[in-house]
Amino acid sequence: MRITTTVNSEARDVDDVWEGESLLYMLRERMGLPGSKNACEQGECGSCTVYLDGVAVCACLVAAGQADGRDIVTVEGLTEGNDLHPVQQAFLDAGAVQCGFCTPGLVVATHDLLARTPQPGDSEIREYLAGNLCRCTGYEKILDAVKLAASRMASSPTKVAK
Amino acid sequence: MEFLTPTSMQEALEAKSAHPDAKPILGGTDVMVELNFDRCRPATLLDLTRIPELAEWGRDNGSIKLGAGVSYTRVIAELADQLPGLAMASRTVGSPQIRNRGTVGGNLGAASPAGDSHPALLAADAEIELRSVNGLRRLPATEFYTGVKRHAGRDDELITAVHITPPSGPQQFCKIGTRNAMVISVSAFSIALHPDRSEVRTGIGSAAPTPRRAVDAETWLAAALEANGLWESRGALPEGLAREFAGLVAAAASPIDDVRGTAAYRLHSLSVMARRSLGWVWNDYASGQEH
């Protein structure tokens, strides 16, 4: 079937999508957007977190057909021109990236968290990122990155826009 | 495979009638896992996310009609004051991403004994709305669950809503798992006081082939509260009452050993949750909170 979507502000049509495939498969294998990672395929790890009509979801649990006519933003869409988004920069600067596999999902989830709660406390961060697994960092540096991003975004609020 | 995308209730019901084997899909948090792991290959997927009626909730004569497609995130944000038990259960579902997509209607469709919303629905005397091209019927939750991952809906029917009259007293939901997020329950328990009719309702999860009420425990507790005049006095619970209630709750369960826990642990944790949650709802009731 044909799927028509807007991905990262760009109209994208894809043909020959299998009816049972996930949005994640369509993004990675048919649209050349491998930023969203494919790990657990059951919503446990959060590595494929994207925005679907502005709502953070696991792309592996959305049927491609459910995304037809919808607006999708992936981790690739968070950059601002050639500049990394402050959340992305904070993950680099805080050393929150080791193997990097969980990072795209954590970046999108953090982006969503800070859009709702610009200055989250530790417990709010832990609660909000509970659906994103990282097997390298032990999460401490990830918490640092979220707080670093929050403080930088507070001091230059124009960068908050999605 | 066919992918059907009805945009109205009538279209959806006609599609289900024409394709009785179609697999309905809402948030996809259960259905897509089955597809991704090749556990099922339905001939037809019936996408219900484009039907506005399913994505709404509203009041209906003192009761709340919760559309099958309302996400857990919205239940928590919009219904916590009116349906605190269901909102508590919703907070324990998966992660933010899962709660953004997962729905009570989908939980009912999957009909897993471990589904988080079921104990709260049972404790609130919820009714499940099933619709087909031939009409609409409402089943008490107790009659809806018929076996492990089986429910009373017919092949031509869709689960379209849940009707819940907010219990007049305090409610609680508890769940045991290996961590505080992203877990399927090892056991779960919900309780609601209904002081307007001097009744107690409970729901047990993950400790029987289906979610079920602990009917004997409810009847015994309501009678004990009545006999001691406690519904009116809101006084302290007599010594040992919560413990006896907890024993009756555990007696209503029939758990198995599986990868998540043993039957013995499920019975023990269930009785601990029953005892504690009775204490919590009674404290709320004694301090005059209606929810």
Walk me through what this model shows.
The complex is a heterodimer of chains A (162) and B (291). Chain A is of the alpha+beta class. Chain A folds into two domains: 3-77, Ubiquitin-like (UB roll), CATH 3.10.20.30; 86-160, [2Fe-2S]-binding domain (DNA polymerase, domain 1), CATH 1.10.150. Chain A contains five helices and five strands. Chain A has helices at 23-30, 86-93, 103-116, 122-128, 140-155; strands spanning 3-7, 10-14, 49-52, 55-58, 71-73. In chain A, strands 2-1-5-3-4 form a five-stranded mixed β-sheet, with helices on both faces. In chain A, helix 2 crosses helix 5 (140-155). The longest helix of chain A is centred in the last third of the chain and has 16 residues, at 140-155. The radius of gyration of chain A is 15 Å and the shape is globular. By secondary structure, chain B is of the alpha+beta class. Chain B has a domain at 171-286: CO dehydrogenase flavoprotein, C-terminal domain (Enolase-like, domain 1, 2-Layer Sandwich), CATH 3.30.390.50. Helix content of chain B is 37%, strand content 22%. Chain B has helices spanning 9-18, 31-36, 72-79, 84-91, 96-101, 104-110, 117-123, 141-144, 215-227, 230-233, 241-252, 263-286; strands at 2-4, 23-25, 44-47, 57-60, 63-67, 127-132, 135-140, 145-147, 150-151, 158-164, 171-176, 187-194, 199-205. In chain B, the strands form four sheets. Chain B has a five-stranded antiparallel β-sheet. Chain B has a three-stranded parallel β-sheet with strand order 1-3-2, with helices on one face. In chain B, strands 11-12-13 form a three-stranded antiparallel β-sheet. The longest helix of chain B has 24 residues, at 263-286. The N and C termini of chain B lie far apart (47 Å). The relative contact order of chain B is 0.12. The model of chain B has no long low-confidence stretch (mean pLDDT 96). Classes of the chains: A alpha+beta (162), B alpha+beta (291). The A-B interface holds A 1, 18-20, 22, 41-44, 46, 49, 55-58, 60-63, 65-66, 68, 109, 112, 127-128, 130-132 and B 1-3, 5, 25, 27-29, 31-33, 35-37, 41, 45, 47, 49, 94-98, 100-101, 180-182.
